[in-house]
């Protein structure tokens, strides 16, 4: 076994260390996506997806080069390891992998144009000893036009650094605003309990109460 020194690159993830903490990004991987998409000369967008998109009821032409679209979405999924800001957009695009249309292809290109404006963006893990867990969650009630199911997202921070996040559609239709807000709170509570147990197993105590923020 050979000692290669401090970790700097692993499976496409670049690692930069400072006294303040560790910065993780996928800049080289992102630039490769932009290059393969032929969008180096494209104008960057401010947001990865349009606010009032209608991808679920698209009537645009079926996509001819389906394999290229699937590969692009797959690469974007891998980028969510260091890009929590892509979680919602990738969640939406992943729903149309079985029969993508031209609108879905255009939406995936919009995500790449968004990345063009921030290829080196990533997550920073603080080296602070104040390991305090906190969670945030929110739900978009009945946002799926086809099923009327709600989409929720949550994120967990450890001392202000994002360590866990997810965007997901509810399995069933919620019957009230209270129900639609309670469900993600239940999910992220389990995640917080698991992470607190993980810290304890590593010999790191977490004596303070865990805070969960929502807009219910």
Q: Can you put this structure into words, describing what you see?
A:
Helix 1 (27-37) packs antiparallel against helix 2 (66-79). A 4-stranded antiparallel β-sheet has the order 1-2-3-4. A 4-stranded mixed β-sheet has the order 7-6-5-8. 33% of the residues lie in helices and 21% in strands. The N and C termini lie far apart (53 Å). The mean pLDDT is 86. Strand 1 and strand 2 (13-17) form a beta hairpin. The protein folds into 2 domains: 9-122, no CATH class; 128-213, Ubiquitin-like (UB roll) (Roll), CATH 3.10.20. It is built from 5 helices and 8 strands, in the order βββααααββββαβ. It has 216 residues and is an alpha+beta fold. InterPro entries: DNA/RNA_pol_sf. This is Transmembrane signal receptor. Keywords: Membrane, Receptor, Transmembrane.
Q: In this structure, how is the largest beta sheet organized?
A: 4 strands, antiparallel
Order of helices and strands: EEEHHHHEEEEHE
Query: Could you say how many structural domains there are in total?
Result: 2
Shape: flat
In total, how many beta strands?
8
Organism: Lithospermum erythrorhizon (Purple gromwell)
Protein name: Transmembrane signal receptor
Keywords: Membrane, Receptor, Transmembrane
